Amino acid sequence: MKAYDGMYIGGAWRPAAGQDVIEVVNPVDEQVIGTVPAGTAEDVDAAVRAARDALPGWAATPPAERAARLAALRDGLVARADEIAETVTAELGSPLKFSQAVHAAVPIAVAGSYAELAATYSFEEKTGNSVVHHEPIGVVAAITPWNYPLHQIVAKVAPALAAGCTIVVKPAEDTPLVARLFAEAVHEAGVPAGVFNLVTGLGPVAGQALAEHPGVDLVSFTGSTAVGRRIAAIAAGQIKKVALELGGKSANVILPTADLAKAVNVGVANVMSNSGQTCSAWTRMLVHRDRYDEAVELAVTAAAKYGDRIGPVVNAKQRDRVRGYIEKGVAEGARLVAGGPEAPRETGFFVSPTVFADVTEDMTIAQEEIFGPVLSILKYEDEEDALRIANGTVYGLAGAVWAGDETEAVAFARRMDTGQVDINGGRFNPLAPFGGYKQSGVGRELGVHGLAEYLQTKSLQF
């Protein structure tokens, strides 16, 4: 175990204002692997002040130079890729191969995309007799989750720096170690002092102090809808902009003409990925009544392959929460066809890959975000019924449509109330905007749309 000291504020590691620490626990063996300082409002204030002091200089830095710093940051992440993967595996419990392929590789790709975008984006445009300037919004507070700990940091920091903003990051208390690696890479990339700052701490203390700070111009938060509501309420009191990426209950709609085996296998893999701890996971599989029984059999077979291939969930509280949902599914009448609430191992925060059949749309497991390896399979009568069920939750983050004809799938996808839809297994695109409809959030991340969240406009008339 290693005790990590200090906060990264104003370009250097500084002692924390208080003496309290946060223990970081390995979810596989439940052992403490390190501690980090539990930041206070005093630490947050110092970080925001540093960001505020650095803002004029960084905002005035030519975009080409900001792009160069981002490119250097990407290179620093590449050099640390193995250490990043090992760190995420230790603090999140993700299998090492997944950590290498996703937790390390995706943030590198995102950082590189913003290095290119900063160099090519037009921060000025002419319309009629006006010139419109796209300027940095100011100091950003980034409050990030534990499920994709580095990706969510990079998805906020990279566009903020590209825009000319300065930023304070408060990472999730369960996974703060990879954030410290990121701070080291930022420092080595030559990002000026105060442009990036890192404060570790608990959400109700450091997170709330950051959201409430009058020196913050934008709060970018990824996490639960409940906390998102709280942050939005705080920001509203100061007329402060928010970017919220919240929960999801995404539908995987398999139309009758689809390749059923492929759609089910990919759908199960999507839900089990990262132990089900993905806000955009397709946790509701919608299948036509004529192919329903076959789909259930395929899903059971597919889920069996993940028994020893997925890691644990992040902590004991999350494990108990997921098991509680499984128990509720059984109690409400869903048919448990794979997995269950019983612990698959004596040690670690593991949950069995679980599949429910005969799920109706009014059941809790069909409406609420579980955030674990749990799939609900629902039956529909026709295409209109499938659309009604797909759109029948408070969420609208992501989804999928499968059909034999791509045109058919696209036509259905256009009617879904959701921010992102994969067609016949479409691949992740780090340049495409990510974000949701309804209670899944406000704003977008990634690509040019993600950059726009950190800009404000000023028009000059001639």
UniProtKB/TrEMBL annotation:
Gene3D superfamilies given in the database record: Aldehyde Dehydrogenase, Chain A, domain 1, Aldehyde Dehydrogenase, Chain A, domain 2
CDD domains with a match to the protein in the record: ALDH_CddD_SSP0762
Membership in a protein family: Belongs to the aldehyde dehydrogenase family.
Alphabetical keyword list: Oxidoreductase
The protein's name: Aldehyde dehydrogenase family protein
SUPFAM superfamilies referenced in this protein's UniProt entry, alphabetically: ALDH-like (SSF53720)
Pfam families per record: Aldedh
PANTHER family in UniProt: ALDEHYDE DEHYDROGENASE (PTHR42804), ALDEHYDE DEHYDROGENASE-RELATED (PTHR42804:SF1)
InterPro entries found in the cross-reference section: Ald_DH/histidinol_DH, Ald_DH_C, Ald_DH_CS_GLU, Ald_DH_N, Aldehyde_DH_dom
Domain of life according to the entry: Bacteria
Catalytic residue list: E245
Every Aldehyde dehydrogenase domain range: 13-459
